[in-house]
Structures are given as C-alpha cells and as structure tokens.
Specification:
The protein is mainly α. It contains three helices and no strands.
C-alpha cells in the first residue's frame, strides 16, 4: 500500500505534461490504480477484498453443506 502511494506521488509531481501523448494515458491509469476501490452492493455494506473473500468462503461452505446433505438423503457415501 505504501508503494502505491509513492508511485502516485511520483506521477503527480513529475513533469507529465512534457511526456509524449502516448505516455499520458498510461500515467493516468497508473495514478488511478493507487486508489483503493470499493463496491457497495445495494448500498448494504462495503465489499472490499476481505469481505469479498468472506462471502466466497461462505458460499463454498454452504455449497459443500448442500452437497453433503443431498448425498446423505440419497443414501450415497461419496
């Protein structure tokens, strides 16, 4: 995270206006990647990497539970 901020500062304080026209969009993209992005689905909660992984873990756990329950109800021992 610290390095991303330093890259962003370096781009901001560089003489970007003297670079070629092809380099300017690349610098803008690099500068924007330093910001943290967040998603707020339906305005309920902030979905970042940590909460996203928690959701995926929960989905996988629930899917495994359903798979086990289905195999037990069918009399299979897989």
């Amino acid at each position: 995270m610290f390095q991303a901020r330093e890259i962003s500062k370096s781009i901001y304080f560089s003489k970007w206006y003297k670079y070629s026209p092809l380099a300017k969009p690349v610098l803008i993209i690099i500068g924007r990647t330093a910001r943290l992005s967040k998603i707020v689905p339906c305005g309920i909660w902030e979905l970042n990497l940590e909460t996203g992984l928690m959701v995926v873990r929960g989905i996988v756990s629930y899917a495994m539970f359903l798979r086990t329950a289905d195999s037990l109800s069918n009399g299979q021992n897989n």
